[in-house]
Task: structure prediction
Amino acid sequence: MVAQLKIVPSLPKLKIDPEFQRLLPPLTPEARSQLKENLLTGDITPEIIVWKDQDIIIDGHHRYEICQQEDIEFNVLRLKFSDRSSVKKWMIKNQLGRRNLPPNLVSYFRGLIYNEQKGGDDQQVKGQNVPLTPTRAKTNTAEKLAAEHGVSAKTIKRDGKYAESVNAIADKAGIAPSAVTKNLTKKEVIELESQLPDLHPYEARTKASRIELRDKKRKNPAVGSLAMVKKDSEHPALVGHKGSHVRITEAGEFGATIQRGEQIIPDISYQFLLPVENKVYLKIDPILCAELLTKYSCLSDGVEDLIKQWSKKNEDIVNSKNP
Result:
């Protein structure tokens, strides 16, 4: 039985940092549905952990999103950090402390820690009378992490190279690193990284996501046409734009440049966009169409004509929504 929820009129407004969010693996639809159900029971007040003084979420992104959507009250735990690097270290270690992480994701996180810390020993020794080469410093870091995680120093070093390869693929493909670790074996990661210089971002994305290249005979969307950003898009440039309507300003073989308001976002794969039929869109939400037209001027000519025809019949409503 679902408990009665306390409706909170003004929930704390927290910030989401795209770089921090990319460190965390996304929830599957099933896991998200279960999380939502758990939060809606109201048995436990959820907790969101943030970087103190910055109010940037470092743990609880999914909980925060659901709480905002459903007006669920939540607690905020603020932790103090000196800089972004310290925040990322905490986030990674926090993830490694959780159960049932996939082995490749564990390797990736260990590699991130190693790559972040491997120069640290060299810096510490500068104030001592002990000669230490960069190679020896890296070895010391690897041995220290190996002892912490119960693996060999060689494994830690391999993890470091693996993390670098995963990040290179994720950056080129425009997807989350966790998606790369999930979809590809370690051998496939190495092979794909070697191919990156010769790949278009869309091709890298399809290989990293294990999806087929779209039919090249399919007609590209027209410049000026309307599209909607998919709500499950993983592209880092689309954070904050999921579910939003955008205009196609340039259309290529593999992807498009899109516009939302005055913001221009280049090189977005068609897999992240849903075409929107002008007449259907107008029928669904003509008032929003009118708002887009008057505020952003980002709609195609066909939509503008339809809105003008519609607005003549509904002038009072349009004026009330767009004073």
About this structure: Residues 48 and 64 are 7 Å apart (CA to CA).
